[in-house]
Queue: 2 jobs
Job 1
Amino acid sequence: MKSLTPKRLLIVDDEKDLLVLLRKVLAKKCGCEVAIAQSAKEALEQTTSWQPDVILTDIVMPDIDGLQLLHKVYEIDRSISVVIMTGYGTIEMAVTALKNGAYDFLEKPFENTKVSLIILRAFERTQLLRENFQLHKELQKGDRATEFIGHSSALKGAIALLTRLSRSDATVLIRGESGTGKEVAARTIHQMSDRAARKMVVINCPALPEQILESELFGYAKGAFTGADHDKDGLFLEAAGSTILLDEIADIPVSLQTKLLRVLQEKEIQPLGQTSTVKVDVRVLASTNQDLEAKMAKGEFREDLFYRLNVMTVVMPSLHDMQEDIPLLALHFFNMYVEKYQRSNMELSKEALKCLERRVWNGNVRELQNRINRAVLLTPGHIITPNDLLSPEELEKDGSTNKHGVDIPICVHRLPYNEAKEEVMSSFASTYLQRALTMSNGNVSAAARESGLGRQSFQRLMQRFQVRPKAFRD
Ligand SMILES: Nc1ncnc2c1ncn2[C@@H]1O[C@H](COP(=O)(O)OP(=O)(O)OP(=O)(O)O)[C@@H](O)[C@H]1O
Ligand SMILES: [Mg+2]
């Protein structure tokens, strides 16, 4: 979607003189940029390349008429306002255009004041539509950010705690291994809290050098340092009435930790170079995947700050503790990327899903997500197999072959013996049946004969392993 301040008008008509005249008049009266197109085809090209905000178009044109143009424009950008110009005897078409979403129509000949007024209103409408789309998008984004997927008791427990904490204004320390959803947890607290109407401010502490981090957090007064030629509010002020997330707080330098402690204790900040302090109403959330206790022992993290932060702590479960949620998460990410990359014919094979389920994910949900992202994007065919998800070394490590070179399904060595055996047997049986049916062109009696089995036994096996002979017939 384009910028929220529309000011580009495209005029489409097959009459060159009218185009030139309108361009001059409307550029002046509406104070906008104007482009012209002598055919609908040209107009569509401009719609894509120049991205107008309003289109004023004739309804009868030699190639594509105004109605079809309207339709195609909307396929490109629903927020463009289209105004139709009609000549004698085309009023019915104009009415149809209105029904199809055109913003307004003008009967030729028209007065300059009238056309400019309509165009100005059309600009306003485009702006409104864009703002609405934007809001809607943000709302959706917000929803998604707080959407935890999974039913495991570990995750449910964490969500229940986040829900309770969202009702208070307490500082919360969110802990957990890398990629376990600590930021999602912070957004969940914020969005369930009374502060949800305002945007949460996130600051990634290690991303900024000490000096910059301080001015970013607390702001500065004019003249505080060379180059500070005006007062600047910091992120704490920006987050007034809302929530601030200090992401990766373990990496904050000790000098800044002291200042942070004051914010937590006194609820006030002191911008750089300013003698007085400013009260702020901000809820502070902090996250870390580091061992803060070890950092304290080494003098790298202030104890008093730790205790201030550690009053309320949520520990996000690792994916290892949410093992049962892996299929759900995998399918969620799979669907998400299929939509993103528009690969709707893609499938995630059963083996691939099983393989994901049994793998040890040190990078937790994030790593699982990244793997699926890569596979959906890069898999050449339309079925994702274990080979598309794991490297040859990983496949090897996961036990895809054993020492004697007999193929066994990936990852079964992580299962208890009986389950592993069941897995291998069912994989063997279904492959065997499928091969026999392929050779016999789907003829069950012939496949049974070749396998040295009775027809009924063969059929029982087919039923058990869900192999259907139809699929093997030409
Ligand atoms: N239970 C979950 N359901 C859906 N998505 C999740 C879940 N947990 C994590 N994610 C997703 O995993 C990714 C990592 O989450 P997030 O950034 O919140 O983790 P983090 O703990 O802050 O990681 P890091 O320590 O690496 O910063 C995000 O894309 C997030 O949406
Ligand atoms: Mg994070």
Note: The chain has three domains: 8-140, 153-317, 322-464.
Job 2
Amino acid sequence: MSEAWIIDAARTPRGIGKYGKGALHAIHPQQLGATVLKAIAERNDINTAEVDDVIWGTSSQRGPAAGDLGRMSALDAGYDIRSSGVTLDRFCGSGITTVNFAAATIMSGMSDLVVAGGCEMMSMPNRRSPEDGPVTMDQGNLRLRAKHPQSHQGVCADAIATMEGISREALDALALVSQQRAAVAIAENRFEKSLVPVYFEDGSLALDHEEFPRPQTTAEGLASLKPSFEAMADVPLDNQGTTFRKLINAVYPDLAIQFFHHAGNSSGVVDGSAALLLASPKYAEANGLKPRARVVAMANQGDSPTLMLNAPVPAARKVLAKAGLTVDDIDLWEINEAFSVVAEKFIRDLGLDREKVNVNGGAMALGHPIGATGSILIGTMVDELERTGKKRGLITMCAAGGMAPAIIIERM
Ligand SMILES: CC(C)(COP(=O)(O)OP(=O)(O)OC[C@H]1O[C@@H](n2cnc3c(N)ncnc32)[C@H](O)[C@@H]1OP(=O)(O)O)[C@@H](O)C(=O)NCCC(=O)NCCS
């Protein structure tokens, strides 16, 4: 079996993604993806005719993002028509999954040169906002919910915090650390290696820096924010009185959900795209591509779809077991801060040293462009392993449906 090497990583800055606002909101998702796909091809001087596949992730394959966004973005980026492209959806886990699938096709001998990544335009107008009113469920969805009640992710985050006895103070403290670390990372240009500016069609600059962080965040400021998901918990979902709260209580009848998550300790809604170049050692050596990291192990893990966000801990254990490693063998961790409770529970359950986790801040400070985030995190890990001279990193994230993909990489 071949190894899979990571040759390079590129990403856009994350732009505020609030319904039609933010520096990237007017960019087409194909164009945003093309920005990083072009950068990764040019930086590494690859023959795009030899790209066996562009494996792309996006969780909203609707509107402008519909129709195999990966293939269309690659064509937009000027890739040779003999390259190929596919787009997948594992919700928030899409961007790790694309890298894992890329590595798997290289390991199996199916491919030699693959670009993996993702794109999410959370500012696209077809996304929902809490003000949009009742969600109508189709019949199939109702049938599934009778078997596996699935709630709203923010309500799930609060349910998990309640169950785990994790306080609002602890969640806010982690959010503050995220902002502080992101501020240091930005001030020290730690993201520079991967960041690719985004331009409008007329050549003017759209965005060249992270737009979401609030470096002035204070503990008092966070403490003053009102929880975001209490009202959402009781929005009627159908004409039978179903609510997100009731969907959780259908499985956990005694749980009195406390509401702790708010705009400061939840992941930011942003636009962004990222791409990584992976190659087999045979191809890389024959074509002068210098590897930056190797893929050590990969895994997927499912967990309760009702609580939705709890799979990262078992996913990390599974990928460690596959690699024959323990927690102590990992130098750096990236656990996506979908909500503060996801990262806090991950740190507690695995007994991690906080100084090794999300060292450059996470999605609470920088934002979480759903289908792109996993690829961003892997690229950030490659950069940070190189910057610090450390060896191994583990990256994982929760995904809707109660899943988590995970990957361990090693600097070369
Ligand atoms: C939590 C959430 C609903 C908040 O959205 P929002 O209310 O539109 O957030 P805003 O940016 O308007 O911020 C709300 C307020 O908090 C304030 N705020 C946000 N971050 C802050 C910080 N770090 N410090 C102080 N104040 C902050 C804002 O200034 C704003 O104040 P204002 O109302 O006085 O203007 C949204 O971020 C969200 O849904 N996040 C999760 C996304 C998600 O589910 N991703 C998938 C994961 S599974």
Note: The pocket of coenzyme A is lined by residues 92, 153-154, 214, 217, 221-222, 225, 228, 263-264, 266-269, 338, 368, 370 (CB under 6 Å).
